[in-house]
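hey so u asked for the seq, here:
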Amino acid sequence: MKYSSRLIVLAVAVAAMIGAGCAKKKVAAQVPPPPSQPAATAQQQSTTQAARNATSTPAPAPAPQQTTRMPNAQTRARIDTLLARIEDAYFDYDKHTLRPDAIKALEADSTELRDILKDYPDYKLTIEGHCDERGSAEYNMALGQERADAAKSYLVQVGIPSAQLATVSYGKEKPACDEHDEACWQKNRRVHIVADSQPR
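ran it, structure tokens below
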């Protein structure tokens, strides 16, 4: 009976020890998973992508503004005023060389005219060559052209672009005076400059 009592006490002690050992064991706490992040909206994604593109790709340079190649109405009026002040250049009989008075006439306001024209490369001037009534029509057409070319050469030397100066000869077809004397013929031996606002 003593043996049996010891055995029971021993069993209870072992059971108590096992129980105490089990009680000392702690179960690892389970950490809940982090809450799932909502998927980015399409707008957020496009904004993010645009921000990335802005930092990685330089913005394209703005397109240069196209400047007009023709003067506005105010500038055209100024050109017309200058042309009106530039007197016709006159020539001796059967000559196409510029006389001193012809050079003086072409020189008037030509510097300002040059400065305006260089900013408007599509704006043209026409230099008309004229002759008096004497001589054949064919001869006077050729002489009128030589006079127009002489005036153009002078204006190009002043600095007006050659591409903006056209020449034409009217020979004796457009006289400034209809009398048949030297005073009238002198008025017809001339060059006259006009504006041609249409691009060519």
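The mean pLDDT is 77. The radius of gyration is 51 Å.
lmk if thats what u needed
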